[in-house]
Amino acid sequence: MPACLVIDSLPGERRVALVEDDALVELQVERPATRAIAGNVYLGRVRNVLPGMQAAFVDLGLERDGFLHVDDAPGPVRLRPEWEGDPSDEARPAAPRIEERVHEGEEILLQVLKDPLGRKGARVTAHLSIPGRLLVLLPGVDHLGVSRRLPEEERPALRERLHALVDRVRPPGGFILRTAGAAATVDHLEEEMRLLAAAWAGIAARRATAKPPFLLFEEAGVIERALREHLRFGLDEIAVDSDEVLREVREALGRISAGVAAPPVVRHEGPEPLFDARRLTTQIDRALRARVWLPSGGHIAIHPTEALVAIDVNTGKYVGRSDLEDTLLRTNLEAVKEIVRQVRLRDLGGLIVIDFIDMQRAASREAVLQALSERLRRDRARSRVLPMSEFGLVEITRQRSRPGLDRQLLRSCPACDGAGRVRSLATLQHEVVRQARRLNAPGSAPGTLVARLAPEATRELRPRAAEIARAIGDIPPDRLRLEADPAMGPDDVLVVEGT
């Protein structure tokens, strides 16, 4: 299916959207204050060890201590589920307890597995991995494997090829061959192997003189991460909205696109913002709502909770044309396509429970499960689908390494004591900039711009007026006026020309 990356940028924010068949399926947002840290490597210091939890808390220099579970502590390597080990690997003995593996005050080299979420600190591991597009380096580990996403019959030959390459290069650790590396040439694999080894050498050199807590290695920014994740599936185009991002994309492609044809990079021109021109703004707004309508007239309702994400499928206005079973099957199959898109777009993780409409025929239930599994294959996150229960429920566990879209773009509603979610102040601020830029387009007559917001939002944003004015296009601060309007809701923004 046609796929492209669409990248827009404002001072203080970057958004990278993956579009397939003209539908928005993934959105990553990066802001300096909330930049993802998953993949970063730190030299930390163990603050306390909790034998009752078989875990330790480690000072990384962040707002909250990192959480280190015994499975991720120094000792026997715990390979990730998507990596396959050698057939000769023998069962390892039971791992020692946490108090035998780390001690209070000890310096320890750690990598962030999961970003902080809510009141929880980052999840960290001592089993480091340095990812490339073709390979993953496992520093200091004598292990070679291939991705489980690759066909089982191809793995022995690929593993043998990897052995031969490692014998020649002799890097400082083991490797996992990623799916994108299966078709790569030996030269491209060797080049990336040397680059990953050099990255690890840099980490080791910085550690030699660092004092904890200290950041030794920072994962690439959102643009390079998105390119690395999506080039393996193929991209038809990359669209950007600024010369700065254009240069950054081309530089990143030069580093990571070895062995594949780099997609064309298009610089968006014209007064209309890039996301508006690609009809993505309305799709983002819909992704923040609980109810999503289906083309047939049915709908799905998405309700995240502390324990799980509940998704309900309803026929709504759709009554079908033949028998009831056919109506239910068609609605469920239509819902599958939208559910997977929303799961990827909202970056829903953990336990997801889907309540499909009850169907009587086993063939119908199997068709829905097969369609769900096929749609999830293009998802970058690892997931597992369990069989449908007799009540029509399907459970999915999906890998979560960063906060979902709602946590990035929304906040607790001040009008209902946190029972709902509304746009965060940063999101409101960037929306003011976007609307003002439309009115402040080249050739427009100079005048005052008035941003109308809810009273509370206005009070919070007024100290940022000069910063907002600069982001609009270096207009004088006195040309921008923030007005409190009691009629505006906490999510509302309206920028108009003033007098």
What secondary-structure arrangement, pairings included, does this model have?
Elements: E1 3-10, E2 13-20, E3 23-30, E4 41-50, E5 55-59, E6 66-69, E7 83-84, H1 98-101, E8 107-114, E9 123-125, E10 130-131, E11 135-139, E12 144-147, H2 155-169, E13 173-177, H3 186-209, E14 214-217, H4 222-230, E15 237-240, H5 243-256, E16 265-267, H6 274-277, H7 281-287, E17 291-293, E18 299-304, E19 309-314, H8 324-346, E20 350-355, H9 362-376, E21 383-385, E22 393-398, H10 405-409, E23 410-412, E24 421-423, H11 425-439, E25 449-453, H12 455-461, H13 465-473, E26 480-484, E27 494-497
Parallel strand pairs: 1-15, 6-9, 12-13, 15-16, 19-20, 25-26
Antiparallel strand pairs: 1-2, 2-3, 4-5, 4-8, 4-14, 5-6, 7-12, 8-9, 10-11, 11-13, 17-18, 18-19, 20-22, 21-22, 23-24, 25-27
Helix pairs in contact: 4-5, 8-9, 11-13
In short:
This protein has helices at residues 98-101, 155-169, 186-209, 222-230, 243-256, 274-277, 281-287, 324-346, 362-376, 405-409, 425-439, 455-461, 465-473, and strands spanning 3-10, 13-20, 23-30, 41-50, 55-59, 66-69, 83-84, 107-114, 123-125, 130-131, 135-139, 144-147, 173-177, 214-217, 237-240, 265-267, 291-293, 299-304, 309-314, 350-355, 383-385, 393-398, 410-412, 421-423, 449-453, 480-484, 494-497. It has 499 residues and is of the alpha+beta class. The strands form six sheets. The chain has a six-stranded mixed beta sheet, with helices on one face.
